[in-house]
Amino acid sequence: MKIIQKLLLIAFVVAGIISCTKKGDLVSPVSFGKIEIVNKTIFGPDSIFARINDKDMLPGYARTGSSNIQVIPQNNYKLSFYKASNPDKLLLEANVTVEHGKTTSISLFSLSEDDPLKLLEFEDVEEPKADEVKISIANFSTNMPDNLDIEILVMTSRRPFRYITVGRIENVGRQVLDNKFSTFVTVPVTKNTADQIVYGYMLAPIDRNTGEYFLPDNLAGSFGTAVEFTEENRIIRAYIFGDGQQTDMLQF
To answer: What is the DSSP letter of 112?
Structure first.
C-alpha cells in the first residue's frame, strides 16, 4: 500500500511539472565555469577581494602569493577589486568572460602600497620541446632606460666563469611593454663542461643604442640576474622592478 502511495505521489509531481511547462518550452541547464584570482602583489595590498557586477562579493580573499578560485555560471562579468582593509576604495576593474568548463584566470600585481594595482596579461604559450626553454619579460622599473634589450646567457663553466649568449629579448622598455609581458623567446638548453644539462640562465640588460650592458648599482648578480628552470618547468616569466635606488629581476 505504501509503495502505491509513493508511486502516486511521484506521478502527481511529474504531472505538475509538465503542466507548468508550456508546450515546446525546454528547461535549459545552467552552464558553469571557474574564475581564478591570483594575487602576485609584492609589497601591495596584503589581501584583495572582488565584487562581481557591483553587488555580489566573490567569497574569500586572494592573499599575496595565493589564489582564490570560484565556480560561477557562464556569463560576462565586471569584477571590482578592493583591499580588505579599505573595502570602499576601488583599486581596479576588469571585464571577464566565464565559459562553460573553462577556468578564467585573473593575475593581480603591484610593487608597493602606492603602486596602482595592475592586471597582468599572459599570452598563451605552447609547451617547449625537450631541448628548449621559453622566457618572457615584463618591465615595471622606473630607473631603467626605455631603449632596453635583455640578453640571455648560459654559464658553461664556473672556474673560470664562462658564458655564451643563446638569445635576446628585444624592446623591453617600460613604455614599450606598457605593463604587459614581452612575447616569449625560445632558447636551447645547453651543457656545461661536465656534460650536464644547464637549466640556469643569466638575464643581462643591454642598451639598444650602444649595445653595452646597463648596470644599475644594485642589480642582483655580476652583470645580470640568474633565473632557474627545471626539467618539469621550462617556461618562465620574469619581471624587472626598481625605484631608482634598487633594481631587481624576479621570476614568477
So the answer is: S
Query: Which three cell numbers mark 99?
Result: 565559459
> Does residue 90 carry a pLDDT above 90?
yes
d(CA 237, CA 183): 10
Position 204: which residue type?
A: A
**Is the Cβ–Cβ distance between 151 and 168 less than 8 Å?**
yes
Q: Are 209 and 157 in contact (CB under 8 A)?
A: no
Q: Which cell goes with 131?
A: 631541448
Sheet harboring 132-139: ordered strands across?
185-188, 132-139, 235-242, 247-251
Q: Please tell me whether residue 20 adopts helix, strand or coil conformation.
A: helix
- State the average pLDDT for the chain: 79
Q: Residue 173 in contact with residue 146, Cβ under 8 Å?
A: yes
Predicted TM-score (pTM) of the model is 0.69
